[in-house]
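Quarterly update from the structural biology core.
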Amino acid sequence: MYNRNTSAPPLLRVAPERLALFLDVDGTLAPIVSKPHLARVPLATRRLLQHMQTRGVALAALSGRPLSQVRRLLHPLELAVGGSHGAQLSLTGGRSLTYLAALPDDLVRGLLAGIAPLHGVWLERKPAAVAVHWRQAPQYRAAVDALVHETLRHAPEWQLIEGHCVHELRHQGRDKGKALRRLMQHGDFVGRWPLAIGDDRTDEDAFAAALSMGGGAIRIGDVQPSIAPWRLKDVSALAVWLQQQLNRFGPGILDRSYKDGEYERT
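Predicted structure, tokenized:
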């Protein structure tokens, strides 16, 4: 059941070696930007996650981006990744699994023809999804919506997921929740307490999976309906919370606080 998630997450009492974090990238670790290729995860955030790994926390990224892009954004972190909404899985230890299903070429051509007169709307092809971006042309939202729904009439095994100024078509057989469940069956994730963190509709599947396992979920962004019981207002607020959580684990290799995208000595 959806709720108006207004409560900030508490600091967790779970030990780091019992915690598994499943993190979205865009809008969660990286601020939303006008074009996906401009996104950056702050270096301070990557360092913070590295220190959490060192303390024993199991980390995974769950993203709509392909594996290669997620790895680039999080470099030099080495962690498990669910890419392309779970259609690609990279497990700890270097093992990768791929479940790809491409939207038929004739339907992609139809989308391209449909957006051609919509100046500022553009199409992004992913390994297992197609995204129609309209952030630069919000006046065409209704036109994009109609075009995508018409496309879905000819692709019954596909579904629409709406994100931040984007309509994304993906195969119904894969989502972030399935990726989370699969990762929880492997390596360091087995037997841990899962916490899923994300910022839009595509992350609700991960929230549902984590909560069904007795774990937790945090929604990033403005107050909105979500099954996540907790909320943080933005990317910076999440970084601060992660820093505070790391400090709660007790003395370690990091004794600094997060502020304005950088670490400051205390």
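The mean pLDDT is 86.
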